[in-house]
Amino acid sequence: MGWGYNYSGQVGIGEAEVKGPDECYCVITPATLLGVGNVTGLDAGYEFGLALRSDGSMMSWGYNYEGELGDGTTTLNAVPKPIDGISNAIAVAAGSEHALALLADGTVLAWGSNDDGELGFGSAEGPEECNAIPCSKRPRPVPGLSGVVAIASGEYASYALLADGTVLGWGRDENGATGTGVSPENKCKCTPTPTAIPGVAHAVAISGGEDTAAAVLRDGTVLNWGENDHSSLGTGTATPEPGCACLGAVAPAGLSNVRQISEGGLHSLVLADGVARGWGYNFDSQVGIGSASVESPCYCVPTATTIGGLSDARKVDAGSYHSAALLGNGTLMAWGENDLGQLGDGTQDVERPSPVAVPGLSGASDVVATVSNTYAIIGPSQTLSLAFAGTGSGTAGGSGILCSAACSQPFAQGQVKALRADPDSAGQFAGWSGAGCSGTGPCFARLDTDQTVTATFGKPKGTKITKAKISGKKRKKAKFRFTAPGAVTGFQCLLLKPKPRKGGAKKSAKKKRKAKFAKCAPGKTYKNLKPGRYTFKVRAVNILGVDAKPAKRKFKVHAPKR
Fold first, then answer.
1. Please, what is the Cα angle at 257 between 364 and 176, to 5 degrees?
2. Between vectors from CA 139 to CA 136 and to CA 142, what angle results, nearest 5°?
3. pTM for the predicted model, two decimal places
4. Which domains does the chain have, with CATH numbers?
5. pLDDT digits (tens, 9 = 90+) for 195-242
6. How far apart are CA 424 and CA 277, in angstroms?
7. DSSP string computed for 117-132
């Protein structure tokens, strides 16, 4: 569903210029998008929208002056329609007039305006022209970009999170959006090729705003970069003129345990320590602290401040001058500017300094606030649970979920959540298990149903014998089943045989070899056992070693009755 400004048909209801109160050309209550079903992800830019579907295809609608719909034309389309050539996308991101799609193989497609190098093609030119503006009318691969686990778009910039936790940025850098902390002096004032953001490592999630961007790090802290003349970076002060009024990556003051961040029009929102907080430009009450900031020079909330009335927020999302939140019960709240009905509460031009409910809407599983619109996915949620195994420790997570001990979070059904694992300073990551994930690279967990993913740090721990069957028939045998939590590559078994009875045969002159563990699998069976007492041991194996405490079971094989 969508609502807000609709001059170019960006609400997706099949018609543009629907007049609301005061001829605002807007839709002031949630309306169902035409023909857009099985949606797992949404994003929108300046008067256009994008939807990701469960089969990996995408749809687009709205403004198309610079090819942002990806349909090969520059023709406005108020009816959502498929984007040809995309069939395996797992994430979508929209800038002001450009778009990105992350594919399942870790590559990225880009299309729309390239006037600031935001497509990452190496220059701020072509490959085509859209009304005399450099563009690409259809999705094209971003050259040299692979191993990507998440994408984000700023207004005229783009970002990619790589599997190793580094972040790349490209596009307009006039106000420091690509993280260098200085304004470039080249012709286009841009970085047209994906380039590492200085000082950012071990990131698990990213977000892009108007001229700012941010990353959530493995330890639950945040780094912000870009324009700071409205204290948009949460440092407590605004960066004064002259110059670009920008900073390289800095940590907003007083934040910890952050699991989700959203960058908007020079303001930021986070979920941290279980509460929603915000900072930055607040002239239109978009931070949501109960009042607008109308004092010069920064018109801002300089440090992260708690947003009242959001006791159970699952997600917060920052638009240009308004914001929205998804609550745990599937309802939405919104606040800030409302000149075009973007709050969806049935009013227009009634600014809301604190969160208010979006009436008549329930069952939401995701929300996206954009320039002058808000969108929601209405449908089931599935829970992603993170578990931990092994003798070591570390953190695991991605956008919306980050933890160092067992935790869970619901997301829209069908979403693919990209997860990274980072061991602590002394440990190693042994791999993923569950939800089809394996190996030590990123985990892509698809939430068609509830899923549990286990991150294993260090050597295995917790090998268990789940079933033992000792046969008492003529052919004496013992059968064992066993398991271990986490990323296990196999098992090793050992059967200790009985010692000879006293007074029996003399010991061999040769020294008896010490029994050793050998490779085995669940269902291990020993046959033709002689009478006596035995001890069975089993230990799990992973790429880092073996369980230091094998599971064991003692049993006895009786002599046949005479």
1. 85
2. 90
3. 0.94
4. 2-380 (2.130.10.30), 382-457 (no CATH), 464-557 (2.60.40.10)
5. 999 999 999 999 999 999 999 999 999 999 999 988 898 888 887 766
6. 27
7. STT-SSSSS-SEEETT
